[in-house]
Amino acid sequence: MRKFLTSSLIVLLIVAALLLAWWKSPLHQVRTLTTSVIIYAPPDRVWQVLTDFHSYPQWNPFIKQATGTPRTGERLELTMQLGDSTMNFRPKVLDAELEHELRWRGQFVLPGLMDGEHSFVLEREGNNTRLTQSESFDGLLVVPMWRSMAPATLEGFRQMNQAMKERAETR
Contact at 8 Å (CB) between 168 and 39? Predict the structure, then answer.
């Protein structure tokens, strides 16, 4: 048993050293995708559409399903459409500032492989709202997977922004 514990400790130290080396290397890169749209509706209406998770299957081409409460500290359950595939996430809400920002952080399989901090920021512009949707990605898989995942993810953001615009403007 003692040998097993010693061996396990050595493996953990090696993994920690490798992660630290990666973290400080040029291979560690945070990458961000951002899209923005002007919605001809006030922020309260846009917020209502954004946080009405129950209606997502009716209009949202990117986040096909969402459950949970948009409140700081809560966990959401999301099903996202990325190109031809779907992915399920359970992100934690980092900020839910009424009519201004909804931000969460999730991860792919394990923390550190590919973590994403996603945000929706609503800014009043007269009687209208600028909606900015973005996500910063960090982790071991970001660089090798970026070229295959970024275009579909960015397209998903754009499609969701457009669908949210149409829904908020017609309510």
Answer: yes
Q: Which two tokens stand for residue 11?
A: 């493996």
**Residue 171 CA, distance from chain mean position:** 26
Q: What are φ and ψ of residue 24, in 5° steps?
A: -90, -5
Question: 106 near 118, Cβ under 8 Å?
Answer: yes
**Which residue, chain included where needed, has tokens 């934690």?**
92
Strand order from edge to edge, sheet including 63-67: 63-67, 77-82, 85-89
Walking along the chain (171 residues) 10 residues at a time, the average pLDDT comes out as 81 70 63 96 98 97 97 96 88 97 91 90 97 94 87 95 97 73
Using DSSP bridges, classify how beta strands 128-138 and 115-125 pair: parallel, antiparallel or unpaired. antiparallel
Q: Classify strands 101-107 and 115-125 as parallel, antiparallel or unpaired.
A: antiparallel
Report the predicted TM-score, pTM, of the whole model to 2 decimal places: 0.82
pLDDT for 21 equals: 59
